[in-house]
Every structure is written in structure tokens, then in C-alpha cells.
Design brief:
Layout: H1 39-54, H2 62-71
Amino acid sequence: MTLPPIKQAPAFIDRRAQSANTPVRERRQFSNSHEGLTPDAAELAQAIDEYKLRHRRRFITFEEITGVIKSLGYTKQGPHS
């Protein structure tokens, strides 16, 4: 009895592997660009980026964002401010 020829499976392509010519782009919670932001928003974005780098965090929680905002000196105003 003869067995049918074995079909060769296509080669596995690891799409996660980066080639030498492909720039490494890290996945981020927010955009990499601060273009078009108001000065206040750009300051917040920069502070969040620095926080994430300092704490080795790719994504941060709302509590962490609140801490970054407070570290910039922002406080909640009362209803009659």
C-alpha cells in the first residue's frame, strides 16, 4: 500500500519579529505626537509620558492620571470659584 505524498505546510512567518529596517514603534495608550494640542494639554501629555517612562508603565490608571494632574499643580475648584 502506497501512502499519498505529504504536503509541506507553508513556512511560519513570525510577524512579531522586527527586521533590521523596520523602526521599533512602541504601543502606547495615547498618541506619540503632541502636535495640535493647547499648551496645557501638551504639558499634561508630556507629564504623563514622563510618568510612564519613570515608572515603566505602558498604560496608566485614572488614579495615576489624577496624580500626574495634581503634580502639575491643578486642583479642583469649588462651585463658586
